[in-house]
Each structure stands twice: as C-alpha cells, then as structure tokens.
C-alpha cells in the first residue's frame, strides 16, 4: 500500500493535517515515534530537529510514495536546510499549516519550503479547511493508491 510521509518540526501540525485529511475529529496527539499506517507515515518532529535522526527519515521514506515537508506559518525558526528534499528519492511537496493563525507568516513559510526544494507548495488550515481541497485534488491526480484512499476516506 502506498503512503504519504509527513516531515516537519514539533508542533508544525503534521498529525492534525492527517486527521483533517481522514475526516477525523481534530485533537492534539503528540507523535512519539514513527507511526506507520496503511495510508500515511507520521514522523515525530524530533526526527527533523536532531540531525543525527535524519537518516531515520531518509530510510523510512523508502516506504512512502510522496513526501510532504510541513512548515507552520507560525514557526519562529525553520528546520529544513537548502535543498533538503534532495535527500529523498520520491516526489516532495510542501505544506504550509496554520495559515489561519493571526500571526501567520505565510510568505515566509512558502519561501522556506521552496528553499528546501518542495514543489508544489500548498497553504492549508486544518481548523477551517482552507487549502485542504487543493491538497486532496493534487493527491488524487498522482493516481497512487494512498492518495485515492485518502480522498475516499475523506468523502
């Protein structure tokens, strides 16, 4: 089964985004370890924040079909090095989360993801649903099983 793997720093909204894509109730749930499911791979932010754990992200990415670099529009710092996406052998997209926050810096988040090599980049809000349909449409166009399963589950 094909999967979407989300990579981002702690509190960037990876788990909440997956909950929204699946049509589940939104609730905070700290990801403590790699959570591999049929439809997705949710990674702890610490795997990105501690460079010595980046190899675990790269190794795990072999089980994914699409890598999503997640960056919160409210993040004070960015964790993706320039061309970070080149470490992966799969397509890498960017996902800006928390776009609805009053202190959101959407342009800055987009710039960080573009610098990391993510393309295309989606601007989303899991709470009000902004950008979710565009992301789902893109995932549907990829024609992979994981994306189609996410769309089916959501509807």
From TrEMBL:
GO molecular function: ATP binding
Keyword match Transmembrane helix: no
UniProtKB keywords: Nucleotide-binding
Segments crossing the lipid bilayer: none
GO biological process, one term: biogenic amine metabolic process
CDD domains found in the cross-reference section: Ras_like_GTPase
Signal peptide stretch: none
NCBIfam families: EutP
Similarity-based family: Belongs to the EutP/PduV family.
This protein's name: EutP/PduV family microcompartment system protein
Source organism of this protein record: Vibrio ziniensis
Lineage, broadest ranks: Bacteria, Pseudomonadati, Pseudomonadota, Gammaproteobacteria, Vibrionales
